[in-house]
Amino acid sequence: MNDHKGLWVFAEQKQGKIKSVTLELLGKGRELADILGVELTAILLGHNIQGLCQELISYGADRVLVADHKSLENYQTDTYTRIISQQVKERKPEIILVGASHIGRDLAPRVARRLDTGLTADCTELGIDEAERLLLQTRPAFGGNIIATIVTPEGRPQMATVRPKIMVSLPKDSTRKGEIVPVPVTEFAEDLRVKILSIVKGDKHGCNLEDAEIIVSGGRGLGKPENFKIIEALAKALGGEVGASRDAVDAGWISHDHQVGQTGKAVRPSLYIACGISGAVQHLAGMKDSETIVAINSNPKAPIFDVADFGIVGDLKVVVPALTQMILEQKENN
Question: Cβ(162)–Cβ(97) under 8 Å?
């Protein structure tokens, strides 16, 4: 294993734009690479993406391996897996980080299987055991009831997927210099087993908590699923998204894609309003880094108030509609 050296980040892009989770991983990857004393490499696949290489360097990469080919314009599991696996076998990094996006969750386990190594999914924290050069991969386990730290003492590279909005990207530094290395892909491009005929875009109105600047979340304190309409009305008035606690999701009041927490989504909005949410550790782990937190709860001793910047003790079924009405009136006056 001593011949494996270096830390890689899979640079996910879509339509020529780097995904935010990639920049977050470069920020954490820079920290870990400096601890290990190795270079940080971003591996980028796509078409007409040469202009993205310097952006990756500006956010912390020392080197960018870039595979630029028409056949890579849209993500394809087989092709991406083969190219990345071949590069890993040739260059032998010791750590690979991948964003836990839809693409990352599809790609990472396939690459790990090709390389016959381990993979820890949906990590919420990463660290380094400097003595053993082991990646400390922390993630919730047993339904979020415990937090486990996993290591890969034998397999190389050590691989992990990381949830969006967990890590923090570095400030962009356009003066940084780095190496850009082209990756040949012709042999793979000529052996495609799948051809994309068309791309159908999903519902634009779907839940997008990770990128939301304002989130209004509801918990079991709502009393019944119908009261989520109160939350939806406030979120709409603020131009935000609707979130939920695990209890509300487990009760079947709202779908899982709205869940915030260790077993849901991690978010960093500028404003997070928690309505009827007690503030269990599982939920706090997903929203505690929000810029401003407002808690509305009838229990003055609820743990959510310990992390809130502003707290309102009262019946949310009265407070939230009144707050919504006030916001709408202000909009009309302006």
Answer: yes
How far is it, in rounded angstroms, from Cα 78 to Cα 193?
8
Residues forming a β-bridge with 215: 241, 272
Residue with token string 């830390």: 7
Say if residue 187's pLDDT is above 70: no
Tens of pLDDT, residues 161-183: 998 888 989 999 999 999 999 99
What are 240's two structure tokens? 């935000």
Per-residue exposure over 63-83, b if at least 16 CB sit within 10 Å of its own CB, e if not: bbbbbbbebbbebbeebbbbb
Residue pair 243/254 in contact (Cβ under 8 Å)? The answer is no
SS3 assignment, position 193: coil
9 C-beta neighbours (distance < 10 Å), count: 33
**Side chain identity at residue 127, one-letter code:** G
Q: What is the CATH number of domain 7-189?
A: 3.40.50.620
H helix intervals, the chain: 20-36, 50-58, 77-91, 102-115, 186-189, 228-238, 246-250, 281-287, 304-307, 316-333
Q: 73-99, pLDDT tens digit by residue?
A: 889 898 999 999 999 999 999 999 999
Looking at CATH, the fold of the domain delimited by 209-333 is given as Rossmann fold (3.40.50)
Residues near 33 by beta carbon (within 8 Å), at least 6 away in sequence: 6, 7, 39, 40, 62
Q: What angle do CA 190, 196, 201 make, to 5 degrees?
A: 150
Q: Where in the chain is the domain with CATH 3.40.50.1220?
A: 209-333
Q: How confident is the model at residue 202 (pLDDT cuts 50, 70, 90)?
A: low
Q: How many CB atoms lie within 10 A of CB 234?
A: 25
Q: Are strands 146-150 and 63-68 parallel, antiparallel or unpaired?
A: unpaired
